[in-house]
Amino acid sequence: MTMNTKERPKARRYILAHGFRPYIDREGYWDGVNAIDSDGQEVALCAVWAKQMRLMVAEGHFGKIAKRTWVWRRTGRIHARIVEN
Question: Apex CA 66: angle with CA 39 and CA 50, to 5°?
Answer without folding.
Answer: 65
